[in-house]
Amino acid sequence: MLKQIITICLIGLLLNGCCAHFYNKTFINKYEFEDFSHFNGVCIYIRGGDSERNPIIFVNPECGNITPYVVVLDKNTHQVMRTKWEITEDRVIADTLKFQNLAQAFLKYQIPRLDVDEQGNVFVYMKDVETLALARFVNEDEMLKFTRKKWINVKNNWYKLK
Question: 48, 57, 63, 82: which could form a disulfide with 72 (CB 3.0–4.6 Å)?
Answer without folding.
Answer: 82
